[in-house]
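Materials and Methods. Structural model of Cytochrome P450 1A. The 485-residue sequence of Cytochrome P450 1A from Dipodomys ordii was retrieved and submitted for structure prediction as follows.
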Amino acid sequence: MAQVLGISFTATELLLVTAIFGLVFWAIRTSTSRVPKGLKSPPGPWGWPVLGHILTLGKNPHLALTRLSQQYGDVLQIRLGSTPVVVLSGLDTIRQALVKQGDDFKGRPDLYSFSLVTNGQSIAFNPDSGPVWAARRRLAQDALKSFSIALDPASTSCYLEEHASRQAKSLADTFQKLTLESGCFDPYEHLVLSVARVIGGMCFGGNFPQNSEMVTVVTTSQDFVEGASSGNAVDFFPILRYLPNPTLKRFKDFNQKFITFLQKTVQEHYQDFDKNNVQDITSALFMHAEKESTAKGVPIPREKVINIINDIFGAGFDTITTAISWALMYLVTRPDVQRKIHKELGIHSSFAPFTIPHSTTKDTILNGFYIPKERCVFINQWQVNHDPETWGDPFEFRPERFLTDGETTLNKPLSEKVLLFGLGKRRCIGEIPAKWEMFLFLSTLLHQLEFSLTPGVEPDLTPTYGLTMKYARCPHFRAHPRSAK
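The predicted structure was written out as tokens:
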């Protein structure tokens, strides 16, 4: 028995009081930071001790954070566990941060899930933002560009248009065959395999495997999407890494399968490498490593080739597949728009709710708010793409909004306000090839086919939150030649 100010406490009560005091002290300490005199921290709602705002985010963080931005503004702050997170909304604010103050916001937070991608060596997810990262990113970008555009029209090299056109035509035949044989089909798995073969052909040429291992890897990419999403609790509550966690296990398993598959494919390709016949991205990277060349004085060793290929290949099929699948779903639910497709209408779908999280590389000020170094930053692309001030009726599928001059010319200034690939120094390196590939697939498919759903079917268009958002699988698609009545 102990006495404090004449009040008796048991050992258990003392322990409980100490624990509560410790939690309160910890909550106060983690919720405040030293702000230079004359400056202020971003505003935000009150959060629970220990938990912070994780319950506020719920299953749809993009919606929750958009609602909070309406109350607290384009720069707000929440807390996930003990980690403060700045959330940026509004196109002007995001451009200010990622473009005009790009060096300040080009970092990546050191999150647990990031360490599982390519064994922590991913260009896109690695916290490094220094000269080594910049050199490897530039190398990946140049390699992707070189095999996306045929500078020599007579060239027979493996370029994007060649692969995408062939796969799109084959996919159109597959969709027709499935309709004839089964009456209807689910397009997603066939689509993801076709898109994977495009980036696989660009990366490995004829060495890209067409076996069951490849099929398993690319068709289970949803396991990666779920684990790599912004606001993943395992990144902010370390104890969850040691408790039964099916989502985390699938994420780990996928990353291991993916890196093993690519390591094997790269090694097999190296055995056939001919420096006098460079026909794909991997060969170009082998050539670079063999010459021991450098990018701004930073060597790119051969063992890093797999890491670069991982980023190029990994980013080359999920985003594109998701975009095309949403386009097809919108078109079967809006046949009137499908009938206008010959007018080259654009598709507006926000399927990437957030960019990969950023972090600040130094103390900085944004919109008058002080943001310290190494602060985790979420970029709310979904809010930008659904801002009523920009789009008027953002929830209406009205792709003609992107046209002008009698619906014959693309309204480029407006189309550039759509955020799907991020901005600034961490902008997706595959943005331009991705847009070309989406156009090639959709134009080929819609030139040959008319898509519809089984009569009476009402598809579920509710997106499932993740790094990219997808709708529920729909096995009721039908495809007929456009000439069919």
